[in-house]
Amino acid sequence: MTSTYQQQLDAKVARITAQFSNYDPPSLEVFSSAEHNFRMRAEFRIWHTEDDMFYAMFERDADNQKQVIRIDEFPIADKSINALMPVLLNELKATEILSKRLFEVHFLATLKGEMLVSLVYRCPLNAEWEIAAKALSDKLNIKIYGRSRGQRVILTDDYVVEELQVFDQSYQYKQIESSFTQPNARVCQKMLEWACNAAKQSDKDLLELYCGNGNFTLPLSKHFNRVLATELAKSSVYAAQWNIEKNNIDNIQVARLSAEEFTQAYNGEREFRRLEEAEIDIASYDFDTVFVDPPRAGIDDDTLTLLQRFERIIYISCNPDTLHDNLQQLAQTHKITQFALFDQFPYTHHVESGVLLEKI
């Protein structure tokens, strides 16, 4: 695996450079990943045999049939996950109530050393399970969270608190078990610093669409007078608000709106009680920059039209194909002045990229 990493990264660089050449971007900035131990999340099936059980994944053979692959170690996962995997498995095997009908194990680690383990079952979880799981949680000094169909058992927390360093400041983030977080924390720090450099320093306001748990929102807030961030998922809005308060930041408001809904509100086409309840006055903002980190499907046409009204657009993308498509419209009014590739997902075809667009 180590011998091929640079070759795979070089192939991604060549692919992205060629794909976006028609927009005449500046030279691509490349932010590489560590070759090992870069993932802070790992999810495994638990495979049961007559006298054993083990972590498993699946891959398809030449006939497109699923084959069970036993996983004893997982080099791409963080060292803390690899260290815990065999210890946890042995403890689960030794306790029948914890191993019976266990279906999956999910690990969520942090750079600061916290660990949340989600145990997913195909049977109800009872009081006996809770006692055994709590004892294991205390013994291994980890958080354990139980799930089965229609049931969630939170022994202590269903989240970890990550700490990311951006230049000379650290930020704390609540990362909830079932919510999206960047899996490669060290590359995420590079993305945050790149976005802050692209933002420079403004005496005006920032609009952020698709803010998630506030991953970019927190460090970007230092570079603007005020920030209005939007996100539709309730769990992400809750986490973003927790993160804002935890980091003692006072110039961010979060609106629970989709990008499409914000466009309607900004254009005066529709009123939203959610804005009134949150005491958010869109008209009071003086935006000069918009930051977007949309889902893989990209940005809808009406929101793209809205983006074209701002002086600067910072666009982080997890799908270069939809970014390329969106640029067909954005390039009519803006020019790419910075272009970056972040290798969040080594050994896969996935690429995270970023562009700074400035009005022509």
Automatic annotation (TrEMBL):
Its EC number is 2.1.1.35. The keyword tRNA processing applies. Belongs to the class I-like SAM-binding methyltransferase superfamily. RNA M5U methyltransferase family. TrmA subfamily. Keywords: Methyltransferase, S-adenosyl-L-methionine, Transferase, tRNA processing. HAMAP family: RNA_methyltr_TrmA. S-adenosyl-L-methionine binds at Q182, Y210, N215, E231, D293. One of its GO terms (molecular function) is tRNA binding. Dual-specificity methyltransferase that catalyzes the formation of 5-methyluridine at position 54 (m5U54) in all tRNAs, and that of position 341 (m5U341) in tmRNA (transfer-mRNA). One of its GO terms (biological process) is tRNA methylation. The keyword Methyltransferase applies. It comes from the Bacteria. Transmembrane segments: none annotated. The active site is at C318 (nucleophile), C318, E352 (proton acceptor). GO terms for cellular component: cytosol. This is tRNA/tmRNA (uracil-C(5))-methyltransferase. It catalyses: uridine(54) in tRNA + S-adenosyl-L-methionine = 5-methyluridine(54) in tRNA + S-adenosyl-L-homocysteine + H(+); uridine(341) in tmRNA + S-adenosyl-L-methionine = 5-methyluridine(341) in tmRNA + S-adenosyl-L-homocysteine + H(+).
